[in-house]
Sequence to fold (215 residues):
Amino acid sequence: MIVYFTRHGESVANVADRSMQPEPEDADRLSERGWEQARGVGRRLQGEGIEAILASPFGRAQETAQAIGEVLGLPYETDADLHEVRQSDAYRAASPRYEGTGHVSWMPAAAPDHAEAGAESFSAIVARVARVQERLQTRVERERVLCVSHWGFLHFFLGAAMFREDFSPAHLPALYRFSHANTGITLFERRRDYRIEGIPFDGWALVTWNDQAHL
Fold:
């Protein structure tokens, strides 16, 4: 029972960040390169049997899902919980110099329920991941699903799969050492009655992280 994930294509915000420019008003949309990346991941997934596309409600993810769907001949649905980690007001005000304002700066040493002004708490993000996992585990039994999401959400999904109930804010700096490119492909498997040397390893497991062969 496999679920496919991809990060959205290159966005206008990504371009601005890489060139150290302030975030533009149209930041939440794909660049021309992002559209081509999205069509490329669609071509890469031809023959994989994708039957459903779920997308974050953010514009860059919606456009990525649209481009993939056009290649695969599929519509896409919106899953409100697939959105990116919501950053603080201070982070948004600091553009393009975010040092010390992002969640990976303040969250690791904070209580799980703490959130800076305008941001999400660790607990709130983990709860979103759990809701997505619960919905996916019923769908992946009958169809092959592609989810279009974001850097932060993918890392939280990975953390929840790896550490289960022990996942904590302190794990974030290590998790964020795992990079993820725009339109990289990640696969998770939902396992049932899976044992290694008698030890149960049921639940979500990472299969492939950030496959970039199509880029």
Summary: The two ends are 26 Å apart (CA to CA).
